[in-house]
Design a protein that fits this description.
By secondary structure, this protein is mostly helical. The chain is 45% helix and 0% strand. The relative contact order is 0.10. InterPro entries: 4FE4S_WBL (IPR034768), Whib (IPR003482). One of its GO terms (biological process) is negative regulation of DNA-templated transcription.
Length: 119
């Protein structure tokens, strides 16, 4: 579309949104392997014993490991952030650690290195 004569070119510019082939085919979660599995595998029942939780989480991670949209799912869980369940092959605690590492990395990248003085 050409800008009208009274519009500036800058105002008429619209950023092009690029989508991957997967996004064009449909939302990433439509391809998720977990859509065919029991939801209880990915979310803890109330008052679940520790041994049962660890076993269930490992089983959920095995499902995630064979999923074609693992990376998309993990990014979704980190961007939201999802406070419960196994998402993208990570537990809620593992996602909190990953988010903390990203924040630390991003903070370190923004801050200038300290200047050392030679006397």
């Amino acid at each position: 579309m050409l800008p009208m004569p009274h519009q500036s070119l800058q105002a008429a510019a619209v950023p092009v949104q690029r989508t991957s082939a997967r996004e064009q085919a449909g939302p990433w979660h439509s391809e998720a392997v977990c859509r065919r599995d029991e939801a209880g595998l990915f979310f803890a029942p109330s008052k679940e014993p520790t041994a049962a939780r660890l076993s269930r989480e490992q089983a959920a991670k095995r499902v995630c490991a064979r999923c074609p949209v693992l990376v998309d799912c993990r990014e979704h869980a980190l961007l939201q952030p999802e406070p419960y369940g196994v998402w993208g092959g990570l537990t809620a605690a593992e996602r909190r650690v990953m988010l903390a590492r990203r924040r630390r990395r991003d903070t370190d990248a923004v801050q200038p290195a300290p200047v050392s003085r030679i006397a």
